[in-house]
Amino acid sequence: MPQPDDWHVHLRDGELLKNVVQHTARSFSRAIVMPNLRPPITTTTLAEQYRQRIIKCLPGGVSFTPLMTIYLTDNTNSDDLKKGIHQGVITAAKLYPAHATTNADAGVTKIENIYPALKILSETGRPLLVHAEDASPSVDVFDREKIFLEQTLSPLRLKFPDLKIVVEHITTREAVDFVYKNNSHVAATITPHHLVINRNAMFQGGFRPHAYCLPVAKREEHRLALVEAAVSGESTFFLGTDSAPHTRSAKESDCGCAGIFSSPTALAVYAEVFEREGKIDRLADFASRFGAKFYNLPVNSKEIRLTKKEWKAPLEVAGLGEDRIRVFQGGQTLQWSLD
Ligand code: NCD
Ligand code: ZN
Asked: What's this model's pTM, rounded to 2 decimal places?
């Protein structure tokens, strides 16, 4: 198959970046890099500097293209956004509702505040990437996605009918339905973990911080809806791992971070899901073609081969000093290997 791309990944910065980027670059040709650093990537200059830091951390001889995003805030400078797009630095813009997830404190407090930026995105055909959760304290954590789609994203679709939107890391049947209903302008990424775990995974025999991410995994019926969407052959559903590395001490703590690190195992997990559904022939579209199509980018010319061959995934990888990062399905035997 053509080499896949990851349309949603967290590569972090500094020592973590150095340790994790190789795991993405090994499987993927390009990746949409999330801007939720501390401080966040809010300008073209910051995005360009971050891009260069990522390139510097790549192992020798590895070809990998980070596609940069800008973190929208209440004060986003839309001229700067326009410049970043025209200079080819910025591929998309990310909407984090304030406080919705890791490093979202600087996120958008009122959607109207980013209307000028949305106008630029709309005019340039660049996608708005949405962390689609309503983080109001009164909203139940398992309803956050549904409420956000109803109350914020549906009206936004009407206000900006030409705006391309990616609903990131969807977790509910309602999100699947939203994408179908708004076809052509709205797409969604689906993570490997949301295809294989439901919310029980967080409570299996005790509290499991490594199964905690945002949006949080939902009931089994929602997982089934995501699987159905992923293997449907609809071009508006494509691969985005949301691989979000945190060290063990940051996860196994009094206030553990949200995020599941899946870069080393993601392709194998997706392949198992597609095979189980009898749709392995559709994996290449989901992983390598549909995302590129939505982003108006060429499909990668380099090819990779996934072989049905067992391998044992590493339990952990290097993180910060001695503090390691747990791998999604790490320590388990997986069925598909990347040659
Ligand atoms: C992400 C992170 O750690 O940056 N966490 C997560 O649970 N997915 C942020 C995000 O994408 O919500
Ligand atoms: Zn994410």
From this structure: 0.98
